[in-house]
Amino acid sequence: MKITKDGALASKGPNGLYYCGRKAVLCNCCTRCEPNGHNCKDCRLLDEEEAAAKEAYLKKTVALKDFVGSILNKEVSIDIILAIAGVGNFFVHKVGMDDTEEIPKIEKGLHINVNESGVIVGFKITE
């Protein structure tokens, strides 16, 4: 659920679009912002904002995968990776650890695997 710019509570309908249920003259076929009709301007704005955020996230994820892939098997400071990658969540794991115990499924972010020398030997981005 999200709140529209006018303060109405909007939730996603079965089609993935936001609807607030408020009465509104939207077109000739519906009088409410609801899934059996159309969504209002404020709810369409929520849809557009969410689509833009997803697109930006996907672009960042692709760039991050390319970047980390380019430094595999090289000695690079973790601080430099953090600064360049700009990720919110960052986890470092020593190679050989049991992934099921060390990387909880709910931990979203960039997971870097390092060997005993501190060289990055693998990575995973969890969403």
Note the topology.
Blueprint: E1 2-3, E2 9-12, E3 18-19, H1 41-70, H2 78-85, E4 90-94, H3 99-102, E5 109-114, E6 120-126
Structure description:
The chain contains 3 helices and 6 strands, in the order E-E-E-H-H-E-H-E-E. With 127 residues, it is of the alpha+beta class. The chain folds into 2 domains: 62 residues, no CATH class; 57 residues, Trypsin Inhibitor V, Chain A, CATH 3.30.10. It has a 3-stranded antiparallel beta sheet with strand order 1-2-3. Strands 4-5-6 form a 3-stranded mixed beta sheet, with helices on one face. The longest helix has 30 residues. The chain is rod-shaped, with a radius of gyration of 21 Å. The two termini are 20 Å apart. The relative contact order is 0.12.
Protein traits:
rod-shaped, 6 strands, 20% strand, 127 residues, 3-stranded mixed beta sheet, single chain, alpha+beta
Largest sheet: 3 strands, antiparallel
Structural class, judged by helices and strands?
Answer: alpha+beta
Task: State the low-pLDDT regions, or none.
Answer: 97-103
Indicate the proportion of strand residues: 15-25%
End-to-end Cα distance, whole Å, is: 20 Å
On the 0-100 scale, what is the average pLDDT?
A: 77
Order of helices and strands: EEEHHEHEE
Continuous helix count:
3
Number of domains: 2
Describe the oligomeric state of these chains in a short phrase. Answer: single chain
